[in-house]
């Protein structure tokens, strides 16, 4: 499995966990909320919304374009701080994504 395949598999796992925990939205946020320039859109989105509507699609876009991944990915500390009880499975997958994205070309 190459780096892109590993990351895509982890994104599928992340979506499944968010759905199972009831953290997956059925409606997208407003265009204004999505246009935030703040890190993680902290001023307009909940973290799970940022994961669903910004992070996951952006990483899939990079995979599809075979583009370079971000040089460093450190989302796990943000998840630990932003979500009251993120759960072991979510933290594990986010940590694996951090590692896989950081080491990918």
TrEMBL record:
GO terms for biological process: single-species biofilm formation. Signal peptide: none annotated. Residues 7-99 form the YqcC-like domain. It comes from the Bacteria. It holds the Pfam family DUF446. This is Uncharacterized protein YqcC (DUF446 family). It comes from Litorivivens lipolytica.
């Amino acid at each position: 499995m190459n780096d892109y395949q590993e990351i895509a598999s982890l994104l599928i796992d992340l979506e499944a966990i968010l759905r199972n925990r009831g953290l997956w939205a059925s409606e997208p946020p407003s265009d204004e909320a999505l246009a935030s320039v703040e890190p993680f859109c902290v001023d307009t989105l909940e973290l799970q919304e940022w994961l669903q509507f910004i992070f996951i699609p952006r990483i899939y876009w990079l995979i599809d374009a075979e583009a370079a991944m971000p040089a460093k990915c450190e989302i796990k500390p943000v998840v630990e701080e932003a979500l009251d009880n993120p759960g072991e499975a979510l933290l594990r997958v986010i940590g694996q994504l951090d590692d896989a994205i950081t080491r990918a070309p």
